[in-house]
Design brief:
Length: about 250
């Protein structure tokens, strides 16, 4: 999966080459492509950019790809300048805002959401949240009931009930602690104001935030939709107990 924050060239021009590197360019038809596509997420216009770049360069892939466009501006319609589908392209979604954020997808291990950021062009920040993990086993309690370390511990952690040598039924809630909350990572695109994402970013463990200009150039930074290293300008998101990584990725 590839995530694009916005369509400025310094964040986008390398994408076709990256897709070739990941997928392996080859002159094959979509019928012979792998059933597992590469998913891409970004603002409206990303699909058209990829189509145009691949068609003009005569690039075809071993694997198909899917573009999911995030409707940051609430246009409620697809990009009006769409070009014909690429042979290796599968249909993607137009993701609309709901309850102040954009839900992208969720697996058993993690989920990804997005929020709008302030920048001269539609821009997105992404929030990756791990699923909670099963709490710790009370090993001493299990041993006291005659259950030594082994396969039964795995069954308990997977939610199964086991039988002790005494015949007692041991249920997971008897010997498991509370679930451990998953970590949350926030990765922001270029922005001078990230309040649009603070709802889903709350409680983040790590925030990656751009800082294109030095603090003394704050006026210029704000003029062009960027931030400075100081916490006052670079992180308006209200979160607690987090590490903040300020980076200029240019």
């Amino acid at each position: 999966r590839i995530f694009i924050t916005h369509l400025h060239g310094d964040h986008l021009f390398g994408l076709p080459g990256l897709m070739c590197l990941i997928q392996g360019a080859a002159t094959v038809s979509v019928e012979t492509a792998s059933p597992e596509p590469v998913h891409l997420y970004g603002p409206v216009g990303l699909r058209n950019y990829i189509r145009t770049s691949l068609v003009l360069s005569g690039t075809y892939f071993v694997r198909p790809y899917i573009v999911h466009e995030i409707d940051v501006e609430g246009t409620e319609k697809d990009d009006e300048l769409q070009t014909p589908n690429h042979p290796n392209e599968m249909e993607g979604e137009i993701i609309r805002q709901k309850d102040g954020s954009f839900f992208l997808f969720e697996t058993k291990e993690y989920k990804v959401e997005a929020g709008a950021l302030k920048h001269p062009v539609p821009c997105i920040g992404f929030v990756v949240t791990e699923a909670n993990t099963v709490g710790s086993l009370d090993v001493n309690l299990l041993k006291s009931k005659g259950i030594p370390p082994g396969p039964l511990y795995g069954k308990i952690k997977s939610g199964q009930t086991v039988t002790a040598p005494s015949g007692e039924l041991i249920t997971p809630d008897m010997v498991l602690g509370e679930d451990k909350p998953g970590r949350k990572i926030v990765i922001l695109g270029d922005t001078c104001d990230n309040t649009g994402i603070e709802g889903i970013a709350s409680g983040a463990d790590v925030i990656v935030h751009e800082a294109t200009h030095q603090d003394e150039l704050v006026v210029k930074a704000l003029q062009f939709g960027h931030s400075t290293p100081s916490k006052k300008h670079a992180s308006k998101t209200h979160v607690s107990n987090f590490w903040r990584i300020v980076a200029n990725l240019k």
